[in-house]
Amino acid sequence: MDFSAIIDFDKQLLLSLNGSESLFLDGLVKTLTTATTWIPLYMALLYLVVKNSDAVVKVAMVLAGAGLCVFIAGSLDDMIVKPLVARWRPTHDGEIGMLVDIVNGYRGGNYGFFSAHASNTFSIAIFFALLIRSRVLTVALVIWSLVNCWTRMYLGVHYPGDILCGLLWGGAVGTGIWYLYHYVYSRMFAPRDYVSSQYTSTGYQIVDVDVVISVLVLTLIYAIFKACFYLILY
What we know:
mainly alpha, globular, 234 residues, 0% strand, 8 helices
């Protein structure tokens, strides 16, 4: 199979998605791609789990599942896959590196296959989607992951192929970890099966799910305001 045509397409697609003439978008993307921006979202998810668990061990199991998602989806990628595959990030690629639009000199590390941002965020999104079983939360978390993916291409630090493989790996990891969690949980506790407009089918209060959605929306508003200040400063 001739991969050169796929690689060339990947590069051209990246160049079409990379950067813009907008300082506002530059500031918005820099905020959205920063891990610390999403700390309130992680804290809101923790609140949701703690509020709807009646035992410390149940909270610990969810935290262990989320931790495994991050470790397997992202950390192993950074430690093993990226240096093993050794595919240059677009910003370091000798062929198109000078054509890539960068923001504030940010080029990322040397290697970019596959995207840890994509695999990490999507594994978390899938794990919590299967855990909570709220359609609104599922859509919100998937959009959150995809927005993170877009920022990496905008900044020119990942090819679309890096993103796609990261999403596939993250989805597989998130699903696999949830099945492991469900297997262990079902042998330790009675199944949670709720039929109520106030709860999801797995027993999480809708009002608490709304807290997570609200935090996500407020974080996006914060990113927009910060981008406006970025526009003023630059």
